[in-house]
Amino acid sequence: MTTVGNVALLPQTNRLRAMHTVIRDKDAFRRDFAVSSRRTIRLPLEAGLELLPFEFPASPQGLECVSRAAPAVRIVTPAVEDGLSEHAFTVPGTGDFGDRFSGTLPRAGAS
Question: Same domain, yes or no, for 22 and 47?
Fold first, then answer.
């Protein structure tokens, strides 16, 4: 993504250019127009999510820490767990969520 000042421009891929072509074509089939429009609307939203700090799942301690450090930041989370274990895992939680999601945990049986 290219950023100039407070404007972020999505990468101008062939796919994005093709969708813009369909949207600009007044003779495009309605279904093609709708599909291209919906996808073009979603792209900035998806890119914007990459810029937001978020915690998944959230702990009360993590939410408090972020809220103190950046009070203007809005946090979106699907759930707030009960707390943290002595190993800083959410309780009841999902254990090593970040490592599991990122694939950075060693696989069982791997040496």
Answer: yes
Under a CB-based contact definition with an 8 Å cutoff, are residues 57 and 76 in contact? no
Report CA dihedral (61, 51, 7, 9) to the nearest 10 degrees: -170
pLDDT tens digit sequence for 2-45: 777 777 889 999 999 999 999 999 899 999 999 999 999 999 88
Are 66 and 57 a contacting pair, CB within 8 Å?
no
Question: Do 74 and 97 have their domain in common?
Answer: yes
- Looking at the fold, whether 47 and 6 belong to one and the same domain comes out as yes
Residue entry with tokens 């040496």: 111
Rg (CA), the chain: 20
Structure tokens at 64: 């408090």
Shared domain check, 76 and 43: no
* b/e code 59-80 from CB counts within 10 Å (16+ = b): beebeeebeeeeeeeeeeeeee
